[in-house]
Specification:
Layout lengths: L17 H14 L11 H8 L3 H13 L3 E4 L3 E4 L4 H22 L4 H20 L6 H18 L3 H10 L1 H10 L5 H17 L3 H16 L2 H7 L6
Antiparallel strand pairs: 1-2
């Protein structure tokens, strides 16, 4: 059965190259845990689903392989990989290291830029709050990512966000598995609110404490995730 049969076909933007769009669509399905580990991705089926030739499909799968989100067995099959905890820990370390420096940077912004940032972050918090009741996991996940990207952009290190995203596929899947757990969505918003309050006060130390708590929230529950989803983890 076609692995994507239950998903609506992607409407490609014909002004952009096909391969990046296919990559983005497949990556999102994997990272949002809609495609389970072991799912076979057949080039011919993917080409039919996306309405493209097999060349952009091949290129997209190669990029997914570089991010270790699929395992490619030449002349045999390409399958969605299991979550690699070692890779998740490394991505977590990278992101925490960068974002601690970012928080220190934004807490030293001139008043006008600083006030504008706080305003944008509060607007994002409103979106997160709206995603809590009723709970809309995809909407909350998008707002969560946008919250952090805003900090990168404001600190003038936007390209580092792309670097972090490329490394974060495994830890992002852990987060999505853990996100529906009781109290987890509320904890995410609470952590973000604490970060914004600290940034507003230009208190880099308090912001760092809130960030550490926020990023540690998923990895602290890895054992529970493994018990609930043993087939997902290496």
């Amino acid at each position: 059965m076609n692995a994507l049969a239950k998903f609506a076909p992607l409407r490609l933007d014909r002004t952009r190259q096909s391969a990046p769009q296919v990559f983005e669509a497949l990556r999102e399905l994997i990272v949002s845990v809609q495609l389970e580990p072991g799912t076979v991705l057949q080039r011919a089926e993917l080409a039919e689903h996306f309405g493209v030739s097999q060349t952009p499909i091949r290129d997209a799968l190669l990029r997914l392989g570089e991010e270790q989100l699929v395992d490619i067995f030449p002349q045999h099959a390409t399958v969605v990989s299991r979550i690699d905890l070692s890779a998740a820990l490394q991505a977590h370390f990278l992101r925490r290291s960068i974002e601690l420096e970012i928080l220190a940077t934004v807490c030293e912004l001139p008043d006008s830029a600083h006030g504008a940032l706080v305003q944008r972050l509060n607007a994002n918090l409103a979106l997160q709050e709206a995603a809590l009741d009723p709970l809309d996991v995809p909407k909350l996940a998008v707002a969560d990512q946008a919250f952090h990207q805003e900090l990168y952009e404001t600190a003038n290190v936007g390209p580092l966000w792309s670097l972090v995203r490329r490394q974060s596929g495994h830890v992002d899947r852990l987060r999505r598995l853990n996100l529906p757990e009781k109290g987890k969505p509320q904890a995410i918003v609470r952590d973000h609110r604490a970060m914004v309050a600290a940034i507003a006060d230009k208190d880099a130390e308090a912001a760092a404490i809130a960030l550490r708590q926020h990023l540690a929230g998923t990895l602290a529950f890895v054992d529970g995730i493994r018990r609930r989803f043993p087939q997902w983890l290496v």
